[in-house]
Amino acid sequence: MSQNGNPNSSGLPEINTPLVHLGNVSNDIDLWVKDEGQCPTGTFKDRLAWKLVEEIKGNRFDSSSSHLISCITMGNTLASVAYALRNGLEEVQRPQLLGVFPSGFSSRIIGPDTSGRTVTGHAVLRRLREQDAVCIECPSDEAFLTEREIANLARNAGMRFASHRDITNGIGVPGYRSILAEALDGMPVPPDWVVVPVGAGVLFKECIDEVVERNLASRVIGVTVLKPTSIADKLYGRFSPYYDDLVRDGVAYHEGNKRFVVVPIEDDQIANYTRDRLPFDSEPSGWAAFVPIVAWRLSIPQPRGRILAIHTGNGIPFALASRPNGGGND
User: Fold this and answer.
1) What tens digit of pLDDT does each residue of 118-161 get?
2) Which whole-number Å values give the CA distances from 114 to 39, 45, 97, 251, in the listed order?
3) Please, are residues 224 and 266 in contact by the beta-carbon 8 Å criterion?
4) Considering only CA atoms, which of 13, 19, 4 is closest in space to residue 49?
5) What pLDDT score does 145 carry?
6) pLDDT in tens, 232-273
7) How far apart are CA 104 and CA 101, in angstroms?
8) Can you give the pLDDT at residue 46?
9) Close Cβ partners of 160 (under 8 Å, ≥ 6 residues apart)
């Protein structure tokens, strides 16, 4: 794990993930990878969770058990936030934590990852409850849930709170920009393309913000899926701001700027990028960023030249951590 072990202002260990130069993967592609799989719980979601703890400690975000933090999730966001709250805050400072999962999540099989591991949704939920999170299942993959609707779900589950904030679409301050900033600082020349997996779209937006602020010519492409049963389950999001445009047009643009585009990919494209070709510990949602590089059949130019792929990581090992035999099925 590439961390220096020193605490940051959140009291949690500083995150410092590696930038890997894979070199010429073809005659016209020079590939670089920012490997967020080296975060403490295995995914880039730790960046947001660590920042949330900083905001709570700085009194810029409500704390204590009278407050509720919620997110619509497939597990990784909730795992990161639960870990950060337990390890970065005193018990009296910790808000309650709610994760809203799609109906039937507990019976899903998640994976396999690059090591061939799978985990049941039931095991994921059990692991999260061990981390003091409340987990409920509802039809969250069928329609957008408002903050008020999520609050009502929490009350129906017996939770009592004075205030509530949903962080599905971020925490109001940048949580992920440091990922791209670190990568750009480590590259000798800025990339022609930055490829980013898109779920709720927060990482995609913050990468664009970093590119724009630095006045770079880099194009940012987001990849996502449109089927709730996709093997890249972390990327499906009915609540994504790009979902409706993708269903209607097959492509979506950030604020109409065609330099920043989101495209859907299919499961066969993800599966055909075989696990043994990826030198990182990853789940399908993490290696989806590599699809535009190797399996292109979409209606925009294929990325060429110097490409930076954001590898978002693998939460499966964290979900399995409480199982003595390491098995993924109950």
Assistant:
1) 999 999 999 999 999 999 999 876 677 899 999 999 999 999 99
2) 17, 19, 30, 29
3) no
4) 13
5) 87
6) 999 998 878 999 999 999 999 999 888 999 999 989 888 876
7) 8
8) 97
9) none
Residue 292 confidence class, pLDDT cut points 50, 70, 90: confident
| The two structure tokens encoding residue 75 | 């597990």
Residue 131 has which token pair?
A: 């981390």
Residue given tokens 């679409």 in the structure block: 169
Residues 6 or more apart whose Cβ sits within 8 Å of residue 191: 32, 184, 218, 305, 306, 307, 308
Mean pLDDT of 160-164: 95
Sole residue written with tokens 């894979």: 22
Of 170, 230, 173, nearest in space to 201 by CA = 170
- Residue 9, both tokens: 């202002």
Cis preceding-peptide flag for 279 (omega within 30 of 0): no
State the virtual CA torsion across 264, 37, 123, 170 in degrees, nearest 10: -60
Locate tokens 């399995």: which residue? 320
Q: 106 burial class (0-12, 13-18, 19+ CB within 10 angstroms)?
A: middle
Residue by residue, DSSP assigns 99-166 as EEEETTGGG-EE---TTS--EEHHHHHHHHHHTT-EEEEESTTTSPPPHHHHHHHHHHTT---SEEEE
Alpha-carbon gap, residue 185 to 198, rounded angstroms? 23
> Which one, of 217, 315, 312, 305, lies nearest residue 260 by Cα?
217
For 170, half-sphere exposure in the C-beta direction (CA atoms, 13 angstrom radius) is 15
**What's the pLDDT at 275?**
56
CA dist 244 and 241 (Å) reads 7
Determine the Cα angle at 155 with ends 128 and 65, to 5°: 60
Side-chain-side CA neighbours of residue 322 (13 Å)? 15
Beta strands in the chain (DSSP E): 3-7, 13-15, 19-26, 29-35, 67-72, 96-102, 109-110, 119-120, 134-138, 163-166, 193-197, 219-224, 252-254, 257-264, 305-311
